[in-house]
Amino acid sequence: MLIVQKYGGTSVANIDRIKAVAKRVVKTSKEGHKVAVVVSAMAGETDKLINLAHQTASSPGEREMDLLLSSGERITSALTAMAIEDLGHKAIALTGRQMGIVTDTVHTKAKIERITAEKAKKALDEGYIVVVAGFQGITENDDVTTLGRGGSDLSAVAIASALKADLCEIYTDVDGVYTTDPNIVPDAKKLDKISFEEMLELASLGAKVLQTRSVEFAMKYEVPVVVRSSFNDNSGTLVTKEDKDMEKVVVSGVAYDKNQDKITIMSVPDKPGIAARIFKGIAENTIVVDMIVQNISSDGKATDISFTVPKTDSKKAFKLTEEIAKELGAKSVSLSDDIAKISAVGVGMRTHSGVAAEMFETLAKHSVNIMAISTSEIKVSCLIDLKYTELAVRVLHEAFGLGKK
Amino acid sequence: MLIVQKYGGTSVANIDRIKAVAKRVVKTSKEGHKVAVVVSAMAGETDKLINLAHQTASSPGEREMDLLLSSGERITSALTAMAIEDLGHKAIALTGRQMGIVTDTVHTKAKIERITAEKAKKALDEGYIVVVAGFQGITENDDVTTLGRGGSDLSAVAIASALKADLCEIYTDVDGVYTTDPNIVPDAKKLDKISFEEMLELASLGAKVLQTRSVEFAMKYEVPVVVRSSFNDNSGTLVTKEDKDMEKVVVSGVAYDKNQDKITIMSVPDKPGIAARIFKGIAENTIVVDMIVQNISSDGKATDISFTVPKTDSKKAFKLTEEIAKELGAKSVSLSDDIAKISAVGVGMRTHSGVAAEMFETLAKHSVNIMAISTSEIKVSCLIDLKYTELAVRVLHEAFGLGKK
Fold it and tell me: What pLDDT sits at residue A173?
C-alpha cells in the first residue's frame, strides 16, 4: 500500500516526539508500505512566529506572513527526515514547493489548485520515505502561501489524492471520532467507521478532530482517511464512502456548537422582500448566517425574525442589522449570546424516519425549550438555551443509544 | 545609486534591532537610492537549529541540514520586510530561490554559480525595497543549499554584482577595518579605504571583519564594499580597487594569527624528493600547510624541516607526519602549539623596499626571535613565539607609523 501519514503539532512537539514519529513511520515502511509523511510545525512554533510578526508591524503584510509561517513546517520536515535516516532508512524532506503544491494567490488562506508530486513519486519509487512540510504551497508566481489554520490536514489529504494513496492517516492527540464529546459524556464511544457526509456535518457542527476543508476534499476525491492517535496503537476511526452498514445506524453522533450568537429583530413589517433585504445586507459583509426563524405574524402586519451568526462576527452583524431595521421601520433589535446548537447526525436518517420527533420529545421531557430547528438529509439541529447544552448532549446521546454499555 | 546593504546576526538579533535596520534602510531609500537588503539569521538562531539537528540524529544529513538552516534567514527576511512596510515603504522579502541564486550541489558549503535576480530587478524598478534571505541558494535540481559560515557576506556581494549595484554595504558590530586589533593596540586607526588585495590578506591572516570568499568575489567582479557599523553613523571602510593613493602607504595593517601549530621533523635524510614526499602526503588529506622552513644541513646528510598547519588539523597532521618520517628514516617528529604568525600588509610594498628589513629589525630590537618568514608581493609574515604576539603587534604598529597620533 501507499500510505500518507499526517502528524499534528502535539505529535511533533519536541525532539523525543519527533523520534517517536520516525519510529512509527519506519515501522509502517517495514510492514511493506510506501510512506509519505506530512508534518505540522512543532506545537507553539506558529504562534511564536505570529507574535514576532505582530511585535514587528501593526498589520504585517500577508505575503510576508506566509513566508514567515511556512518556516515552522520546514523545520519539522527537515528534523523528521533526519530522525528517520538516523534509524537507518532513506528519507527526503520536501517543502510545499518541492512537493509541487500549487495554490491560488489568496495569502494566509490559499486554496490548492493542483499538486504535481513528481519529486515525491520518484523518491518513493527509489525507496525513500518522503517527509513533506504541511500547511504550505506556492503560487504560479513563485510566492509562498499557507492554507490557513489546520491546513496540514488538507495538505495530507490532497497529497494522498495526488499520489493515489490507498490511505491517509491523520495522527492527532485523540483516539478517533467519538459519538459525542467524551468530556461531557464519559460513556461516549469511538466510532470504527463514519461516512464523509457525517464527518463533514460533525466537523462543521463543532467536532474538532478534522478540519472541514480537508473532509470536503477527501469526500470529493474519495480519499479514505483514518483519524488516530500518535500516542498509542489503537485503530482509530475510518472516514470513508457511505456503505450499506452505515445506513443501519440511524444516528452516528451528537454534536454541539457554542460559538454562535442570536440576533432578533422585533416587529418588522410583514411584507414580501423583507427577509431578502436583511440577509442580503449581512451576506454582503461576508458574515455567514446559520439558523433563521421567522414567527408567524398574528395580525398579518408585523413579525419577529431571529437568526444566528458566528460569535466572532456578532457585533458587526448586530450593527448592520440595527441599520437595516431602522430603514425597514422595525421596532428593535436584540443580541443574545446564551444560546447553543445541538445536532444529531447520521446517514441512516435518509431511510429511517422519526429522528426529529425523537429528538424533540427527548428535549421536551427534560424541559429544554427549542428556539429554532434546522434539518438536512442527514442532520437535525436545535437551537437551545446555552445552560442546557451538556444536559441535552447527555440525554440525546442516551436516547439514540450511542453509549458503550 | 543602487545600494546593497547586508546586516549580520547581531544587527538583527531582536525585534527592536530589526526595526532600527528598517529605519536605516528607509532612510537610504529616501535619500534617493534603490536599496536591496540582505539579512542573516537572528543571532543565535542558526546555532539553535544546529543543536536541534544534533539532538535528532547522530550525523544529520547535509541536504536536510541545509533545508533546516535556511529557515533562520527566511524568518529575518520576512520580519525585516514587515518592519519596512510598517514605516510606510513598499517592501518584498525574497528567499535565496526567489532571488535566483543558483549554486552547485555541495550542501552546507555550496558555491554560487549564477544569480538571475529577475524578481528583484522588477521589484526595485517598481519602487520596492527588496529584502533577501542571505546564506542560501538553490541547486539546478531545486534543492535548498547554504553557503557555509559567513555566507551572508558572500550573498550580499554576489547580489550586488548581479544587480550591478554601485555599492555593497556590510553592516556589522564594528566600525570598519582597523590598522590592527584595537583590543591589543588602543591607538589602532580605522582605515578609510583599503584595496581588495590587502583586505584578502588581512581576512586570511585572521582579521574577522569580512569572510575571505566574499572578498575574493568582490575583487573578481570589482564590487566596491563598505564595512561599517549598524549601531552608529560612522562612515566605515571602503574596500575597493587599488588606486594611486593607496600605493603611497607602505604598510596598511598589522595582523596576527594564533590558530596554527608547528610540526618539526628532525634529521631527515637530505636528498631530492623528500619535501615532496612529506607535503604530498599531508595535502592528500586536505590539510593546508602554511609556512615551511628547511634548515640548511650542516653536513649535507640530514636536515630539519618545520611547517605550520591550522590548529584544527594539527593532531591529524602530526600522525601523518610521524608515519611519513618513519618511512623516510627521520629521527623524530615534534608538535608545538605555542607559536603565532605576525604579518604586515600593504600594496605600497610593491613600490617601496625595506619593509621586511624594518620588520626584522623592530622584532630583533625587542628580542623577539623569528622562526620562519614568508612573503608575498604585498605581505611579510613572521612566525614567532606565541607569548610575544601582543608585544610584536604593538611595536610593529608603531614602527610602521599606523597609529592615530
Answer: 86
pLDDT digit string (tens) for B357-397?
Answer: 999 999 999 999 999 898 888 999 999 999 999 999 999 99
For position B239, what pLDDT does the model report?
96
Strands A144-146 and A136-138: antiparallel
Q: Which residue has the cell 546576526?
A: B9
Which of B153, B173, B193 is the last residue before a domain boundary?
A: B173
Q: What is the DSSP letter of A359?
A: H
Tell me the chain A residues in contact with residue B19 when contact means C-beta distances shorter than 8 Å. Answer: 56
Same-domain pairing of B21 and B113: yes
Query: Rounded distance, CA A190 to CA A210, Å?
Result: 15
Separation between Cα atoms, residue A21 and residue A12, nearest integer Å? 7
> Looking at A24-33, B82-91, B239-248, which range is the least confident one?
B239-248
- Let me know whether B254 and B382 are in one domain: yes
- Edge-first strand order for the sheet with B379-385 is B253-257, B339-345, B379-385, B372-376
Q: How many CB atoms lie within 10 A of CB B237?
A: 24
pLDDT of A285 over the 80 cut? yes
Q: How far apart are the first and last CA of chain A?
A: 36
Cell digits of residue B338? 605555542
- C-alpha distances (whole Å) from B335 to each of A227, A247, B315, B338 are 64, 84, 9, 9
With 0-12 / 13-18 / 19 or more C-beta atoms within 10 angstroms meaning exposed / middle / buried, residue B10 is middle
Q: How many CA atoms lie within 13 A of A146 on its CB side?
A: 25
Give the amino acid at A4: V
**In sequence order, which residues have a C-beta less than 8 Å from that of residue B158 and are 6 or more positions away?**
B101, B112, B115, B217
Q: Rounded to the nearest 10 degrees, how much is the dihedral formed by the CA atoms of B375, B377, B378, B381? A: 0
The range of the structural domain enclosing residue A34 comes to: 2-173
Find residues 53-112 of chain A whose CB sits inside 8 Å of chain B.
Answer: 53, 55-58, 60-61, 63-65, 67-68, 70-71, 74-75, 77-79, 81-83, 85-86, 91-93, 95, 97-98
CATH code where residue B275 lies? 3.30.2130.10
**Model confidence over A31-57: pLDDT tens digits?**
999 999 999 999 999 999 999 999 999
Residues with Cβ within 8 Å of A32's Cβ and at least 6 positions away in sequence, in order, are: A1
| Residues facing B229 on adjacent strands | B172
CA distance to partner chain A, nearest, from residue B86 (Å): 5
Contacts of A64 in chain B (CB under 8 A): 78-79, 81-82, 85, 91-93
Question: Is A276's pLDDT higher than 80?
Answer: yes
Spatial distance between the Cα atoms of B339 and B383, rounded to a whole number of angstroms: 7
Query: Tens digits of per-residue pLDDT, A365-396?
Result: 999 999 989 888 899 999 999 999 999 999 99
On whether residue B268 sits in a domain, the answer given is yes
**Rounded to an integer, what is the distance from CA A137 to the centroid of its chain?**
20
Residue B48 near residue B16, CB atoms below 8 Å: no
Q: How confident is the model at residue B146 (pLDDT cuts 50, 70, 90)?
A: very high
Q: What is the ipTM of this complex?
A: 0.84
pLDDT at B297: 67
Interchain pair B98, A142: CB under 8 A: yes
- Tally of domains within chain B: 2
Based on the fold, state whether residues B167 and B255 are members of the same structural domain: no
- Rounded to a whole number of angstroms, the CA Rg of chain A reads 24
